[in-house]
Amino acid sequence: MWTYACCSFIIIAMIQDFDYQNCIGPLLDWFDTHARVLPWRSDPSPYRVWISEIMLQQTRVEAVKYYFDRFLEALPDIASLAACPEDRLLKLWEGLGYYNRVRNLQAAARQIMDEYGGEMPADYEKLLRLKGIGRYTAGAVASIAFGLPVPAVDGNVLRVMTRLTADDTDVMQPAFRSRLEETISGIIPDKRAGSFNQALMELGATVCVPNGLPKCNECPWESFCLAHLAGRETEFPVKSAKKPRRSEEKTVLVICDGARTVLRKRPAKGLLAGLYEFPSETGFLSPKEALLRAEALGFSPVYIQPLPDAGHIFTHVEWHMKGYLIKTAETESVPRGLILADKDEIETDYPMPSAFSKYTRILHIRLGKKEL
To answer: Quick one: how far is CA 278 from the chain centroid?
Structure first.
């Protein structure tokens, strides 16, 4: 007991006196030899950095690579992004999820066209005023693309820095992020601001990892990381508990008229706004109830088959889905508010969320990873 208390006292004293300047050289040397080769790093232009940073929110690096290359090929600059039709834009984003990200991207692109002549502003405060750009993204673009010495604090940086100093402050507190940004602002090297911010992120993504034990023997900060010296690496960062997600039960109706499948467009506001989906109902329906619902939609069912249950987790809600494949007699006119589309049309023209991927696979429809 005395030993632990004594150790804690020493660690607290070390935090108060921590010399961040000793960390800069080893971190940059490590990054120079260990940085991953990524598509957006080969040409860190403002547009490419911006697109990559938005894609990387809530999405793994390996998953982003394909989508980044395809997106840049289709929309190579701010002008083309600003002018892109909505369905085309959402189709290019299909599979990445969190579709508000790409809507905000386009809104910001239109801001840049209107206010800055199509050129991204090389100014942190002006970047912050663009739609969908917060403090982290503004810092990343400003430092990586323009070399401005401003911090870019994401989850990786929070984890690395709290372990480095054994700081047990709740990182969900806004005041903590502001304090950390101030600390980094005081040490970020003017001539290598982008490399410094990327090095912090890279260290968190590849060495000081969130799940399981960090790879301390590979870390350039091993000899002076306070959490490591105290054997408490996995205790940081400290986060307050999130509110539990609510659950929703849904019945998905995969209605097929020969080679065509019924879709409908979701409302322009709310979850998965503007995307296309199979018709669905709240709650779990029996096969008889599902057939009656298909009839109410204007179809003449001739066959029904239960499909595997599926689930999908969003930020604040979790869907639990029961599905039915319903074959119908050929339909001469499409009921109002619905669309009949064949496989190729769905793959190229109608952006659908990955929440329904279990059912699109049954129809051999590929989402997200088809060349457009």
So the answer is: 24
Per DSSP, the residues of 277-326 read E--EEESPPPHHHHHHHHHHTT--EEEEEEEEEEEEE-SSEEEEEEEEEE
pTM: 0.88
User: Each residue of 87-126: pLDDT tens digit?
Assistant: 999 999 999 999 999 999 999 999 999 999 999 999 999 9
The closest of 30, 69, 24 to 51, measured between CA atoms, is 69
Residue in this structure with the two tokens 């990054």, named with its chain if needed: 31
CATH code linked to domain 246-362: 3.90.79.10
Residue 191, token pair as written in the block: 């001539």
276 forms beta bridges with 265
Interatomic CA distance for residues 141 and 139, integer angstroms = 6
Identify the CA nearest to 132 among candidates 96, 98, 162, 108.
108
Q: Which residues contact 366 (CB under 8 A, 6 or more apart)?
A: 347, 360
Give the class (CATH, top level) of 2-235.
mainly alpha
Structure tokens that stand for 302 in this block = 């001739």
User: Are the C-beta atoms of 69 and 94 separated by less than 8 Å?
Assistant: no
Q: Is 53 a catalytic residue?
A: yes
Instruction: Judge contact between 317 and 244, C-beta under 8 A.
Output: no
Contacts of 292 (CB under 8 A, 6+ apart): none
Cβ distance 47 to 23 under 8 Å?
no
Mean pLDDT taken over the chain: 92
Per-residue tokens: 180: 């950390």
Other beta carbons within 10 angstroms of residue 47's beta carbon come to 21
The tokens of 123 are what? Answer: 């100014």
Q: Quote the distance between the C-alpha of residue 84 and its chain's center.
A: 21
Domain ranges of the chain: 2-235, 246-362
Catalytic position from the list 53, 94, 233, 347: 53
Q: 202 near 34, Cβ under 8 Å? A: yes
Tens of pLDDT along 237-252? Answer: 999 888 899 999 999 9
DSSP assignment string, 179-244: HHHHHHHTT--GGGHHHHHHHHHHHHHHTS-SSS---GGG-TTTTT-HHHHTT-GGG-SB-PPPPP
SS3 state at 359: helix
